[in-house]
Design brief:
Largest sheet: none
Helix content: over 70%
Order of helices and strands: HHHHH
Oligomer: single chain
Strand content: under 5%
Structural class: mainly alpha
Number of helices: 5
Length: 128
C-alpha cells in the first residue's frame, strides 16, 4: 500500500510539473500581441522553465542545494498560479497552488522522494 501511495504522489508531482509548463505556454500565447510574439512566448517560456527546473529542482538536478531547489519550486509553481490568476482563472490558480503545496508537503513529510528506498526493497533486504 505504501508503494501505491508513494507512486501516486510522485505521479501527481509530475502531472503538476507538466501542468505548470502548459500554463506558461497558455499565458505566453495570451500575453503576445502578434502571432510571432505569441509563438515565441508560448514556446520560450516553457522551455526556459523546463531548463531551470532540470538544473535546479528535478530529482536528478546537479546544481544548487536544498535551498535553491525550494526557491525554484516556489517560483515555478507560484508563477504558474499567478499566470492562471492573470488569465482570469483565479479559483483554478488557487486550487493549483494548494494542490501543489499539499502534494509537496506529503512527499516531504512521508519521505516519498524518487531516490528514497522503497518499503518493498527495504523489507526484502532486511528479511534475508
Amino acid at each position: 500500500m505504501h508503494e501505491i501511495w508513494r507512486w501516486s504522489n510522485l505521479g501527481l508531482a509530475f502531472a503538476v510539473e507538466l501542468a505548470g509548463l502548459g500554463i506558461f505556454a497558455w499565458w505566453g500565447w495570451q500575453a503576445g500581441n502578434t502571432t510571432v510574439v505569441r509563438l515565441l512566448l508560448a514556446i520560450g517560456l516553457p522551455v526556459v522553465a523546463a531548463v531551470l527546473w532540470g538544473l535546479f529542482a528535478a530529482p536528478t538536478a546537479n546544481h544548487g542545494g536544498p535551498l535553491v531547489t525550494a526557491i525554484m519550486k516556489i517560483a515555478f509553481f507560484g508563477l504558474a498560479g499567478l499566470a492562471l490568476w492573470s488569465l482570469d482563472h483565479r479559483i483554478l490558480g488557487i486550487v493549483f497552488v494548494v494542490v501543489v503545496a499539499a502534494n509537496l508537503l506529503v512527499i516531504r513529510a512521508a519521505n516519498l522522494s524518487p531516490d528514497s528506498p522503497s518499503t518493498a526493497t527495504t523489507s526484502n533486504v532486511t528479511s534475508r
